[in-house]
Design a protein that fits this description.
Layout lengths: L1 H54 L7 E6 L6 H17 L3 H4 E5 L4 H13 L2 E6 L8 H9 L4 E4 L11 E5 L1 H15 L7 E5 L6 H14 L4 E6 L6 H14 L6 E4 L2 H13 L15 H9 L5 E3 L2 H17 L10 E4 L4 E7 L2 E3 L5 H5 L6 H4 L5 H6 L4
Parallel strand pairs: 1-2, 1-3, 3-4, 4-5, 5-11, 6-7, 6-8
Antiparallel strand pairs: 9-12, 10-11
Helix pairs in contact: 2-11, 4-5, 6-7, 8-9
Length: about 400
């Protein structure tokens, strides 16, 4: 009996020693782990961050918004927006979830509300094509107060130091090209009678087009009637041209129309009034309908502003700003004063398009295809022009 008790005591002692040894391991392990964390984690983190920054492309986290002014001018939804979206997608930006697109339908107050909504919804970049160049200063100021960069796209936003960049064309040059093309088309006519159908009085670009055209035409032609066209409306342009024809007894030698929409309205008015042959009419934007009118001989010229590179460089700049990357110095090629500051600018070159160079410009660039231009109605005209 005593032997059994001794054996049991020994077994109990051994068990307690084993349990004591096992119990010390959890205490030791956290001590070792804690020691490893405190010694190595900061080193690992500080090494990883610079490595990641230098080895990988910047991440485009966050949203951006593009605010376009209207839909009456076909280019915005047929060219600007698709090219902007496609370039962002190519750069790796999630356009489906992080691009906010808003169109103001020519309503400045609506555009301001849209900008407020975009900022509320987390836009970190605003690409703004203003309805009203002056009143859009409120949008730029609002964005600046929230540290959101503003890219003024195509039209200059005036009166604010919240505009970070401006992307457009040399707009005075556009007007000069229009004026010179019209003057050349009127060669041989003595003191020809011209009607000017300008753009919207709220669009800063329109004032630049007008200024450029006047710099060429003043003193060389008789500008018998001149109108500003609210909202760039083709219908209003048609009404204005009808008024001019009535006042001038249909005696018009040429029409300086500021864009293709106003050109179309002017041509419609002249057709309705029985003007034949149609006088030379200028335009701008190389809209498909305008190219087809040029093929037919109804419109003399348009100014081709290569919208694809304009939209693409806007996308590239917006992406750089969103990622916090440095904007390359050679990306900026000028500055334009908006009444408050000199805005760093990217200015592209406009091109005159007539029947003679459609193939070498808008077709060669893929802006329009021969198939798009040369539908059944225009097939013979396209053949005559050497397009097919």
């Amino acid at each position: 009996m005593r032997h059994k008790s001794l054996t049991l005591a020994v077994l109990l002692l051994l068990a307690s020693l084993i349990l004591a040894a096992c119990g010390s391991s959890p205490t030791a392990a956290p001590a070792d782990t804690s020691s490893n964390d405190s010694a190595s984690a900061p080193t690992t983190n500080s090494d990883a961050a610079p490595s990641n920054d230098s080895a990988s492309a910047p991440s485009a986290d966050g949203k951006m918004a593009i605010l376009l002014p209207e839909t009456k001018t076909a280019r915005y939804e047929s060219q600007d927006l698709p090219n902007f979206r496609n370039k962002l997608q190519e750069l790796g930006f999630d356009v489906e979830n992080n691009l906010i697109y808003l169109n103001a339908n020519q309503d400045a107050a609506n555009q301001q509300s849209q900008a407020e909504a975009a900022l509320t919804n987390g836009a970190k970049i605003l690409v703004l094509d203003p309805v009203d160049s002056d009143s859009a200063s409120v949008i730029a100021d609002m964005a600046k107060s929230q540290n959101v960069p503003v890219i003024s796209y195509d039209r200059l936003t005036k009166g604010s130091d919240g505009v970070n960049y401006y992307i457009s064309f040399d707009n005075e040059k556009v007007g000069q090209l229009q004026g010179q093309a019209l003057f050349d088309a009127l060669a041989g006519k003595e003191n020809p009678t011209v009607v000017m159908i300008n753009g919207s009085p709220t669009d800063n670009n329109a004032s630049m087009f007008k200024q450029g055209a006047h710099s060429v035409l003043d003193g060389k032609v008789n500008i018998a009637k001149e109108y500003d066209t609210p909202d760039w409306s083709p219908d209003k342009a048609q009404d204005q041209m009808t008024q001019a024809l009535t006042a001038l007894s249909n005696q018009v030698d040429g029409v300086l129309a500021a864009n293709d929409g106003t050109a179309g309205g002017s041509i419609a008015a002249m057709k309705a009034a029985g003007v034949n042959p149609l006088p030379p009419v200028t335009g701008q934007d190389a809209e498909l309908a305008a190219i087809q009118r040029i093929i037919l001989g109804e419109q003399y010229m348009t100014v081709y502003k290569a919208i694809k590179p304009e939209a693409e460089v806007a996308a590239e700049l917006a992406y750089l700003l969103l990622t916090g990357a440095e904007v390359p110095a050679d990306m900026i090629n000028g500055s334009v004063n908006n009444g408050v500051i000199d805005v760093p600018s990217i200015l592209l070159t406009p091109i005159v398009v007539t029947k003679d160079n459609i193939k070498d410009t808008v077709v060669a660039d893929g802006f329009w295809t021969v198939e798009q231009i040369c539908t059944a109605e225009y097939a013979q005209a396209c053949t005559d022009a050497g397009l097919q």
